[in-house]
Amino acid sequence: MKTSPFQPDQTSLAYSVGITLDRFIKLKQSDFPFASGELSQLLRDIVLAAKIVNRETNRAGLANIGGAFGQTNVQGEEQQKLDVIANIRFMRALSKGGEVCAIVSEEEDAVIDLQNNSGKYVVAIDPLDGSSNIDVNISIGTIFSIYRRKSPIGSPIQLKDIMQPGREQVAAGYVLYGSSTMLVYTTGCGVNGFTYENSLGEFFLSHPDIQAPKTGNIYSINEGLQLEWEKGIAAYIQSCKERKMQSRYIGSLVADFHRNLLKGGIYLYPATQKNPSGKLRLLYEANALAFIIEQAGGKASDGKQRILDVQPESLHQRTPLLIGSAQMVEEVEQSVVLHSSLVTV
């Protein structure tokens, strides 16, 4: 029997830094016998781009990369310089990796066909969520979804490869660039979180097997739009106040979602008079977070149905989003149904 070469008092001199993301991916590769390593490599490509974006966001106040770029994207939103930078970084990483045949990005009008007919995967991505918060040093993030293509390998991509409901995702995740940089992702076998160690340039497993609390004491919603909410949403928020729950709203989707995932709570961006179809995008925002929250034991709804069951009809389709602790999402769904059934005379 081989013994450790270190004496007991020596081990205390060097603490364990834990499992690296790369090692974790390799350990979990057997969960995907159909992937033959391609999905693992695709996740590594995303991580590489995230490290570069993390570097850029950390130096935003020193380099001239803050503020507006001077153009608007397909959403009609003013692009920030870092929106453009992040989009370029992820497009390069995904196109050069060789595993992806098509990309859907918030910053691109149309599907990016990489002309890689041997690629097995389609990626939908919001390269930099909440980028307008960079100038005031508030947490921002990257959100991504990964789907297996439906068309035969070797053939050109088809519409059915892109317009897949969220339940077809094989992986999804987000990167939170905040007081520390974290990657949280799922491949349908639970949710795990990794924290970036800058000095080593590695993500280490810091939050294994994340489970969302069944309920919580936090609600996150833009109360400035209260006069535009439907009655069911307004009634639910009023009940939150009566129960003396905590209102916490950063205005950066990834940051609000991450807090509620760990601590318990609900994030709401419902339909409003101005945006009757909601404001958040289905393919590269709502679906990814819905997949994550369900794998962690929570729920995600548009108020009427499960987000992951919504069939996409357009590339930049918007949706209402109620997401977080399961019991809280069920409560707001019940409130919406109750008040929509009331008849006023």
From TrEMBL:
Domain Fructose-1-6-bisphosphatase class 1 C-terminal: 213-334
SUPFAM superfamilies assigned to the protein according to its UniProt record, in alphabetical order: Carbohydrate phosphatase (SSF56655)
Keyword Ribonucleoprotein: no
Obligatory cofactor(s): Mg(2+)
Enzyme class, first EC level, given as a word: hydrolase
EC number: 3.1.3.11
Chief location of this protein within or outside the cell: cytoplasm
Short name of one Pfam family: FBPase
Claim: Cytoplasm is one of the keywords in the record: yes
Cofactor note (record): Binds 2 magnesium ions per subunit.
InterPro entries: FBPase_C_dom (IPR044015), FBPase_class-1 (IPR000146), FBPase_N (IPR033391), FBPtase (IPR028343)
Every Fructose-1-6-bisphosphatase class I N-terminal domain range: 19-208
Keywords on record: Carbohydrate metabolism, Cytoplasm, Hydrolase, Magnesium, Metal-binding
UniProt subunit comment: Homotetramer.
Family listed: Belongs to the FBPase class 1 family.
Protein name according to UniProt: Fructose-1,6-bisphosphatase class 1
Gene: fbp
